[in-house]
Amino acid sequence: MPNTKSAKKRVKQSEERHLCNIARKTGIKTATRKVLDSLQRSDSIEDTKKLLRDAEAKIARAKGKGVLHSNTAARKISRLAKKVATAERSSKNQ
């Protein structure tokens, strides 16, 4: 239990940041899911690439804010981009 005024303020700030971080992580998960769903539904590659750009932007923003570690962000972006590139190559071959 915080006793001093500054400790109480820190607890409040920590809770606010925690909520913002959860919201950012949820946004990343949603954007990632949209990209993967688009790939599974075999939507047009252009639509999927737009969703990928949106997901990359959210991940990069979270990395900049300190919500995600830089290696984690790079790994997430890389895996998504790899899946989209594979789908693009397979659609060109058909």
Short description:
With 94 residues, the chain is mainly α.
Task: Please describe what this structure looks like.
The protein has a single domain (5-93), classed as Up-down Bundle (Methane Monooxygenase Hydroxylase, Chain G, domain 1). The chain is 86% helix and 0% strand. It is built from three helices and no strands. The protein is elongated, with a radius of gyration of 18 Å. Helix 1 packs antiparallel against helix 2. It is an all-alpha fold and 94 residues long. The protein has helices at residues 5-40, 45-65, 70-93. The model has no long low-confidence stretch (mean pLDDT 95).
Overall shape: elongated
User: What is the residue-averaged pLDDT?
Assistant: 95
Helix content: over 70%
CATH class: Mainly Alpha
Provide the fold topology.
Layout: H1 5-40, H2 45-65, H3 70-93
Features:
94 residues; mainly alpha; Methane Monooxygenase Hydroxylase, Chain G, domain 1; 3 helices; 86% helix
